[in-house]
Write a structure and sequence with these properties.
With 130 residues, the chain is an alpha/beta fold. It is 17% helix and 30% strand.
Length: 130
């Protein structure tokens, strides 16, 4: 092969490689269409807090939360427990929770909510809702 043919061949190979690279790059995506405004109320963020029942205690024993927060108690002990409000009238009662069972309650009013375990009354806790 003569030098001119090598130059032409090399040029063809380089062009082919560049063509492959260009064609394998995805085209830029179109920007998303604007969302029309609606008259729906804005979404509300729901807060959450957890209380672990372990070693015959509520952890944390005292909890301060905002109105609208959902508290979930989960029993990590090998025996049943409850999360039962002490107030009159009673605001919440989980009933007996076996190992790994959960109970959730959403606090919709400010106040101080003392609670205990009906099975083990020495187990107590307090939820303060602000």
């Amino acid at each position: 092969m003569k030098p001119a043919k090598y130059s032409l061949l090399a040029s063809s190979v380089v062009s082919a490689i560049i063509g492959i690279q260009v064609s394998s790059n995805p085209a830029p995506a179109d920007p998303p269409a604007p969302v029309a405004a609606t008259s729906y109320p804005p979404a509300t963020h729901s807060a959450a807090a957890n209380v672990r029942i372990d070693n015959f205690s509520f952890q944390p024993r005292e909890l301060v939360i905002a109105v609208g927060t959902t508290v979930t108690w989960q029993n990590a002990d090998d025996v049943p427990h409850t999360a039962t409000s002490k107030g009159d009238p009673q605001v919440f009662d989980s009933g007996a929770l076996d190992t790994d069972e959960k109970f959730s309650f959403t606090f919709s009013k400010p106040g101080k909510y003392a609670y205990y375990c009906k099975v083990h009354p020495h187990m107590t806790g307090v939820i303060t809702v602000k």
